[in-house]
Write a structure and sequence with these properties.
alpha/beta, Rossmann fold, four-stranded antiparallel β-sheet
Length: 222
């Protein structure tokens, strides 16, 4: 049973009177533990595809399954719980809370889940150690470099032990050397934890790390 399955998925957006066909009949299967890259130029549908897998949006037609769950049949509360418990998100703009430290940003998803304080601290410190930021636990985002901020974002995405980690252009705001270090870190975590990573990029350096490369062109898998 694949961890993600998409069957003839389409997604349309309405811009005034214009209909934009972002995805056009996409079929995709992702197995547990894969490290998959969704590649393609800007406007090809990469972010839309990740948003559908992440249950941030629903398809116009077709089916999206996470394990055996048909996403379309889940109500808003069930979708929120699924995102909180089974999916981790890494964004190109980091999306950290400016007034919180690295430790507090990483801890935040566990607070939302009501995890006990002692368990939270232990888990967060272990995660910051994993991303080599234990010595920066008390630093706020404005006291960290771009690469360090993205490491905090990775720690935050992984702290809930999600089955799937979605990363939308995770190296877009980083220089090439830092970007490669971040992808190597993601790959290391993928191998150590058997977490499923699905990330988008148009950076050829990032693509070379993928188990499997899926090219999107004008909303279709090429």
């Amino acid at each position: 049973m694949p961890i993600v399955s998409m069957q003839k998925v389409t997604k349309d957006y309405h811009l005034g009177k214009t209909i934009v066909n972002a995805l056009k009949g996409v079929d995709l299967r992702v197995e547990k533990g894969e490290f998959i890259c969704i590649a393609g130029p800007s406007g090809s549908g990469k972010t839309t595809l990740l948003n559908l897998i992440g249950c941030l949006d629903k398809p116009t037609s077709g089916k999206v399954f996470l394990d055996e769950d048909d996403v379309e049949r889940l109500n808003d509360n069930q979708l929120s719980r699924l995102r909180a418990e089974r999916i981790g998100f890494i964004f190109q703009s980091f999306n950290l809370i400016p007034v919180l430290s690295a430790l507090e940003n990483t801890e935040y998803p566990l607070l939302l889940k009501g995890v006990a304080r002692q368990s939270r601290k232990k888990k967060v410190l272990a995660m910051l150690e994993e991303v080599e930021l234990a010595n920066f636990a008390g630093h706020r985002p404005d006291q960290l470099s771009g690469g360090q901020r993205q490491r905090v974002a990775i720690a935050r995405a992984l702290v809930t032990d999600p089955e799937i980690i979605l990363a939308d252009e995770p190296t877009a705001n980083l220089d090439s050397k830092t970007g490669e270090t971040i992808v190597e870190l993601m790959k290391k975590i993928n191998e150590e934890m058997n977490s499923t990573f699905i990330f988008s990029t148009h950076d050829s350096m990032v693509m070379k790390y993928a188990h499997r490369l899926i090219h999107l062109q004008d909303g279709r898998i090429a």
